[in-house]
């Protein structure tokens, strides 16, 4: 029996109410034992921010204020529980947009005070990693094995992490400029595709030739870091060149070629890290992990098990907040009501309650 499976049997039973507001999704969820989703309500602001071509922080904060009362009420209702029936309140403390984080943390503090419940501030990236443990059908989750290599790819983050054991991490590398999701958004704007850029580029790429344009891959040899600004610039130059003599851009081919370059970099560096650090499995999480081409490339090229959440759990959601909140709560973490947000909280600074 694996160590992770032994742990799942011995851990106590808790129901955690999670709140998430790190960017532009307002979400509340109830998760039992870190795995079973009892409810997961997400109020997306994507349509609202589409007019800006990206997330407008002040607008996001105001929308969180409006949406949280409803999503919290709905999450408890769908779980057939009230506040008295949950064991703790977990909330995203960082990293993320400061104003958005403050709204979520203050709602969590209010619930903790009203219900007399413990408060658990959780790390958004750690929550993404534990999203692969979630199961909505009463199953036992993924049962990740260690050491594992985690690739976190989203609109704000591209990070490669060595997961040494349960709640123990060593960050290996990160983006030096644009995150992968940010690059998708920027290239989508160049191609006059709607926001958010990831789904738009995926959709048009299905009819494109990924080898039509030879866009650069920044391998940054000798490091585990990423860089996508050069790729974005290469697409911009190609677009400007094509516009000089073509009235209609080959959008499908441009998008497919760009997407292929991003996928090559993400998959290539992750597989290299898995080999060097003798990983037993690979985790691919975050909003960009919903990308079909990325998922297929990992599954085709990796000799190791590749654990990827279902698409609806790749993007920001409170179920993953509640999931990691469970493990942190079971390990003894408790936070005070004067807890502040940490907008630039690095994963390397994450404390491990098991060391206390």
Overview of the structural elements:
The protein has eleven helices and ten strands. Helix content is 40%, strand content 18%. α3 (57-78) runs parallel beside α4 (98-115) and α6 (180-190) packs across α7 (197-205). The chain is of the alpha/beta class and 356 residues long.
Question: What's a concise summary of this model?
Answer:
With 356 residues, the protein is an alpha/beta fold. Helix content is 40%, strand content 18%. The chain has eleven helices and ten strands.
Helical amount: 40-55%
Low-confidence stretches: 1-9
Number of discrete domains: 2
CATH class of the largest domain: Alpha Beta
Distance between the ends: 27 Å
The helix tally amounts to: 11
Average pLDDT, all residues: 91
Write out the CATH superfamily name of the largest domain: ATPase, nucleotide binding domain
Strand sequence of the main sheet, in spatial order?
3-2-1-4-5
What topology does this entry show?
Layout: H1 3-10, E1 15-20, E2 25-32, E3 36-44, H2 46-50, H3 57-78, E4 88-94, H4 98-115, E5 119-123, H5 124-130, E6 148-153, E7 158-165, E8 168-174, H6 180-190, H7 197-205, H8 229-243, H9 251-276, E9 281-285, H10 292-301, E10 306-307, H11 318-330
Parallel strand pairs: 1-4, 4-5, 6-9, 9-10
Antiparallel strand pairs: 1-2, 2-3, 6-7, 7-8
Helix pairs in contact: 3-4, 5-11, 6-7, 6-8, 6-9, 7-9, 8-9, 9-10
Keyphrases for this structure?
10 strands, Nucleotidyltransferase, domain 5, 5-stranded mixed β-sheet, alpha/beta, disordered N terminus, 356 residues
């Amino acid at each position: 029996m694996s160590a992770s499976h032994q742990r799942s049997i011995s851990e106590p039973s808790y129901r955690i109410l999670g709140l998430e507001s790190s960017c532009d999704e307002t979400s509340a969820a109830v998760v039992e034992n870190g795995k079973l989703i009892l409810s997961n309500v997400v109020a997306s602001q994507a349509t609202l921010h589409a007019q800006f071509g990206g997330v407008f922080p002040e607008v996001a904060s105001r929308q969180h204020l409006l949406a949280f009362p409803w999503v919290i009420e709905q999450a408890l209702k769908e779980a057939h529980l009230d506040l008295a029936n949950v064991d703790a309140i977990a909330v995203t403390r960082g990293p993320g947009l400061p104003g958005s984080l403050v709204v979520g943390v203050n709602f969590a503090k209010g619930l903790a005070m009203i219900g007399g419940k413990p408060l658990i501030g959780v790390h958004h990236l750690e929550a993404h990693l534990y999203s692969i443990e979630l199961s909505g059908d009463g199953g036992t989750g993924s049962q990740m094995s260690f050491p594992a290599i985690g690739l976190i790819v989203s609109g704000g983050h591209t990070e490669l992490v060595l997961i040494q054991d349960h709640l123990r991490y060593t960050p290996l590398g990160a983006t030096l400029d644009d995150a992968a999701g940010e690059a998708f958004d920027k290239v989508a704007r160049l191609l006059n595709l709607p926001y958010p850029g990831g789904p738009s580029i995926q959709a048009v790429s299905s009819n494109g030739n990924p080898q039509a344009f030879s866009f650069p891959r920044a391998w940054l040899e000798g490091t585990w870091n990423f860089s996508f600004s050069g790729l974005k610039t290469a697409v911009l130059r190609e677009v400007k060149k094509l516009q000089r003599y073509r009235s209609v851009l080959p959008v499908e081919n441009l998008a497919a070629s760009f997407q292929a370059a991003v996928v090559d970099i993400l998959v290539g560096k992750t597989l290299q890290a898995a080999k060097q650090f003798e990983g037993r499995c690979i985790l691919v999480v975050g909003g960009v992990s919903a990308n079909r081409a990325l998922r297929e490339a990992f599954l085709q090229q990796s000799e190791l098990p590749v654990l990827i959440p279902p698409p609806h759990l790749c993007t920001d959601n409170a179920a993953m907040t509640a999931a990691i909140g469970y493990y942190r709560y079971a390990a003894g973490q408790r936070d005070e009501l004067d807890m502040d947000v940490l907008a630039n909280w690095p994963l390397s600074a994450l404390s491990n309650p098991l060391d206390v």
